């Protein structure tokens, strides 16, 4: 089965850091662009970041630029999101998703809570 | 950044009704527009890509149309399992903004 599984979420203090992981299986991970999308519980979807298949191109939402870093290890079939200088506004469910424009496969999400 | 204005924010319809949701982009995005369905506690699911193309496995009662700045998503005959929130999303260039969502429930 084609699958994405996120991990690494949890409770972190304001100003802290967290690294999310997204393990891919069932498809040729190295061939696909990948994304992170977040959602505050009860609110809408917000695109966060994108990385191309060979790691030569990345894009970020203005709200996370300079604080978050997207990366991937194609040998490990894993996508990452390093999140630094976290604030309460970063509290959300974080989803990884596959695709350059249309996001056709999504993980189940991992909750990140930024609170003291 | 491109803004996506989706309407209505919620609607209530009867089983079998035709349901229509609109999405307006703040600038021309050609056909670079997707529609997603999200059920409570679940990840979004891609239904329509490139404005009018049905994703594999999605029932044909779902359809999309439009280009430029104005887009429409239609459920031709609402079914109980269609209760969800629907989002449009552009992918003309980053950032890939989503619309605010339309919550659909049964009357």
Structure in words:
- The complex is a heterodimer of chains A (116) and B (107).
- Chain A is an all-beta fold and 116 residues long.
- Helix content of chain A is 0%, strand content 50%.
- Chain A contains no helices and eleven strands.
- In chain A, strands 2, 4, 5, 6, 9, 10 and 11 form a seven-stranded mixed β-sheet that branches. Chain A has a four-stranded antiparallel β-sheet with strand order 1-3-8-7, with no helix packed on it.
- Chain A is globular.
- Chain B is an all-beta fold and 107 residues long.
- Chain B has a six-stranded mixed β-sheet with strand order 2-10-9-4-5-6, with no helix packed on it.
- The radius of gyration of chain B is 13 Å and the shape is globular.
- In chain B, 38% of the residues are buried.
- Classes of the chains: A mainly beta (116), B mainly beta (107).
- At the A-B interface, β5 of A face β4 and β5 of B.
The beta-strand count of chain A equals: 11
Number of helices of chain B: 0
- Characterize the largest beta sheet of chain B: strand count, sense, and whether it forms a barrel: 6 strands, mixed
Characterize the overall form of chain B: globular
Give the topology.
The complex is a heterodimer of chains A (116) and B (107).
Chain A: E1 3-7, E2 10-12, E3 18-25, E4 34-39, E5 45-51, E6 58-60, E7 68-73, E8 78-83, E9 92-98, E10 105-106, E11 110-114
Parallel strand pairs in A: 2-11
Antiparallel strand pairs in A: 1-3, 3-8, 4-5, 4-9, 5-6, 7-8, 9-10, 9-11
Chain B: E1 4-7, E2 10-13, E3 19-25, E4 33-38, E5 45-49, E6 53-54, E7 62-67, E8 70-75, E9 84-90, E10 102-106
């Amino acid at each position: 089965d084609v699958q994405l599984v996120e991990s690494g979420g949890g409770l972190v203090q304001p100003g802290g850091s967290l690294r999310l992981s997204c393990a891919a299986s069932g498809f040729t991970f190295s061939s696909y662009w990948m994304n992170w999308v977040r959602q505050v519980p009860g609110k809408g979807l917000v695109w966060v970041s994108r990385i191309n298949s060979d790691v030569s191109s990345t894009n970020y939402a203005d709200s996370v630029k300079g604080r978050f870093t997207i990366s991937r290890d194609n040998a490990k079939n894993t996508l990452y999101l390093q999140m630094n200088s976290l604030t309460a506004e970063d509290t959300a469910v974080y989803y990884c998703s596959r695709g350059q424009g249309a996001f056709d496969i999504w993980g189940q999400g991992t909750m990140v809570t930024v609170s003291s | 950044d491109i803004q996506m204005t989706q309407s209505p924010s919620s609607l209530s319809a009867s089983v079998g009704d035709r349901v229509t949701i609109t999405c307006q982009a703040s600038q021309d995005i050609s056909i670079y527009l997707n529609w997603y369905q999200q059920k409570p506690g679940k990840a979004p699911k891609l239904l329509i890509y490139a404005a009018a193309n049905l994703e594999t496995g999605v029932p044909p009662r779902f359809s999309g149309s439009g280009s430029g700045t104005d887009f429409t998503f239609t459920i031709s005959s609402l079914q109980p399992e269609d209760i969800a929130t629907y989002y449009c999303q552009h992918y003309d260039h980053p950032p890939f903004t989503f619309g605010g969502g339309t919550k659909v429930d049964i009357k």
